[in-house]
Task: structure prediction
Amino acid sequence: MGTNSGIFEAQLGPICAQLEAHGHEFVFVDGQVECDGADEIKPYFPGPYLCYYNLPTHDRVKQAQEYIEDVIDEEGPFDGVIGFSQGAALASSMMLEHAKSNPLNDLFKLGIFAGASLPFDLDNNTGIGQWLSANSKNPTKESPHFEGEFDGELGEDEPPGFPTAPWLATGEPLLGRYHPEKNPGTRIKVPTLHMIGERDQYAGQSQVLARMCAGDSTVIRHREGHSIPRDRQFQNKAIAGMERIIQKVQFRS
Result:
């Protein structure tokens, strides 16, 4: 969150150019909610800064999913989805929700997730209790949390995705996240590619998301933080990884 489609397109520019040369097309979709710009984005890109939801409640996450569904209906179908940070969480949550209701067909044929935080589960309203339990380092039986679930979000005054006391007063329940131990029967079964930075605060969450993917899953690591590196070595690895899963999908078709 705190970016926009133009920024994401610029970040992926060299990668997209290489793939577009082979006939692939990309559609970039803005979030509909204005928010503060991400710290790593503001020095380099002007706003507006957007997100898909600014609070992980059922209604707001569901509205974001329905918005993307409308884009698919109007501009799709799309073979795959690529998302960064909250975009990756939203895309993967849609794929997991679809897997629960439509286990015999897939929403997308492939997924590419960069700097992903864990996706929210529309059927789980226990998120704030789980975060409070994890942040106290004293998990309870009523609100258990699992390894990696809140990596990068503990010990903060206002952790991303899990707001503190002022929001608690609203009484709006917050969603819990998907986790392989909480959701053993729900998986993304199509080929996926995961880009994870060694210094990314969400690296732990990204690794847990990779465990939610039961198809052909590839992890590409880089030495940077919550970003998409622009050095040639990483981009070549990313392009090779994308081409590999695209070929997998084409072969299956």
About this structure: The beta strands are 33-34, 50-51, 80-84, 110-114, 192-197, 217-222. The radius of gyration is 17 Å. The helical segments are 5-11, 13-20, 58-75, 86-101, 127-135, 165-168, 203-211, 232-252.
